[in-house]
Amino acid sequence: MWCTTSPESRPLLSSGSSFTSPPVPVDRNLREKEAVSQSFTTVSILGAGPAGLYAAILLRKGFPDASVVVHERNPQRATFGFGVVFSDRALDFMQSDVPELLDLIRPDMQQWSDMQLSLPTRDVKLDGVGFSAVGRMQLLSRLEQYAVSLGVKIKYESEISDIGELRTDLIIGADGIQSRVRDSDIETFQPALSYFNNHFAWFGVALPFETLTQTFIETNLGPMNAHHYRYSSSMSTFIVECEPRTWKAYGFDGMDERQSADTCGALFANTLKNTPLITNHSHWRRFPRLWCKRWVSGNRVLLGDAAHSAHFSIGSGTRLAMEDAIALVRAIREEKDLPSGLAAYERNRQPIAEKITNAANRSAEWYDAFAEKMKMPPLDFAKDYLMRSGRIDLPQLRKMAPQFMAEYDHRAR
């Protein structure tokens, strides 16, 4: 269960509190275009995650006369996981659309400018690799409050088993990897789904790590890795990953959450300073590799993990999903009618998202092979790690992480 004594698990507002956003700014230059493009009055969004809530916010700001209802199958505040990590300054895209929302979220965020690889023989500092993180519950609470203040209706424990029952002009599938909207028209959306090899489990720990760290260890039954970072002043995410052979050798396939947490806690005891791991639906999984060939079917459109997955190792999944929402609402505003807007969204957004998901897939493939790569000398391992996604070349790496590369070059001489 979620650690109920943690501040992140409590509502940000008491039952007697109210939240009032600043007046919604109106871009009068778009009045005429919006009048033409708003060929819809009702919107149903499935999924109250970051993508669904942000889409609702942007739609209400861009089309204040539209009725926007978000359906979430889970109870309110029943989020899974712990923290959400972003690449450095990744939420700055909010600055142009909803700066007041960004101002609300920023105080909750943790930031750092460097990261660390902890290897069996030594630690390697990677300068210039900045990230930021926030509690998932904190992020969702801020988005929810702001959406409600704009008039968005959010219905929790609202399971839509038949998408055809939704009689609205626009249906947005922001309902994740098990999307009912996507499954409502497999032939059109054409999803391609497979899974990476490694197994992972997502834990939390009441221990604020100084920076984002990748800890690689050798155990009697095989190598393991932990991705860990703080997301508040008192809490951190702790993701444990291993190859199938190690996962099977430890018997994780036969353990419950608590047994898995205790076993992983013992294996990473030095890193955790003997602090127990916290569970929250911390089941072992393999990460999905999803890409839909089409994102639009009639008045149905997909966002985020419903349309594509992005491995957590590059810290771009939530940002990618929220930027999908930006691209969708922008396309609807700029086109002459809703069908044209949906077509423009798919046409313009897919190539951008594909580049990022391809990089995420290459990163995931690197992790699938981390056991073999641990045989490399530490600095070679670190350089290989930094270049794993194929997004940077050696000159870019020298500019991004000059201190690390100075150490690397000195070693090579």
Question: What's this model, at a glance?
Answer:
Helix content is 37%, strand content 23%. The chain has helices at 31-37, 50-62, 94-97, 99-105, 136-149, 180-183, 186-189, 244-249, 257-267, 269-272, 317-334, 338-368, 370-373, 378-386, 394-400, 402-412, and strands at residues 42-46, 67-72, 83-87, 110-112, 115-118, 123-126, 131-135, 153-156, 170-173, 191-205, 212-219, 222-230, 236-242, 277-278, 285-292, 296-297, 300-302.
Blueprint of the fold:
Elements: H1 31-37, E1 42-46, H2 50-62, E2 67-72, E3 83-87, H3 94-97, H4 99-105, E4 110-112, E5 115-118, E6 123-126, E7 131-135, H5 136-149, E8 153-156, E9 170-173, H6 180-183, H7 186-189, E10 191-205, E11 212-219, E12 222-230, E13 236-242, H8 244-249, H9 257-267, H10 269-272, E14 277-278, E15 285-292, E16 296-297, E17 300-302, H11 317-334, H12 338-368, H13 370-373, H14 378-386, H15 394-400, H16 402-412
Parallel strand pairs: 1-2, 1-9, 2-8, 5-11, 9-17
Antiparallel strand pairs: 3-7, 4-7, 5-6, 10-13, 10-14, 10-15, 11-12, 12-13, 16-17
What does this structure look like?
This protein is α/β, with parallel strands linked by helices. It has one domain (29-370): FAD/NAD(P)-binding domain (3-Layer(bba) Sandwich). Helix content is 37%, strand content 23%. The protein is built from 16 helices and 17 strands. It has helices at 31-37, 50-62, 94-97, 99-105, 136-149, 180-183, 186-189, 244-249, 257-267, 269-272, 317-334, 338-368, 370-373, 378-386, 394-400, 402-412, and strands at residues 42-46, 67-72, 83-87, 110-112, 115-118, 123-126, 131-135, 153-156, 170-173, 191-205, 212-219, 222-230, 236-242, 277-278, 285-292, 296-297, 300-302. The strands form 3 sheets. Strands 5, 6, 10, 11, 12, 13, 14 and 15 form an 8-stranded mixed beta sheet that branches. It has a 6-stranded mixed beta sheet with strand order 8-2-1-9-17-16. A hairpin with a 2-residue loop joins strand 16 (296-297) and strand 17 (300-302). Helix 2 packs parallel to helix 11 (317-334) and helix 11 (317-334) packs antiparallel against helix 12 (338-368). It is globular. The termini are far apart.
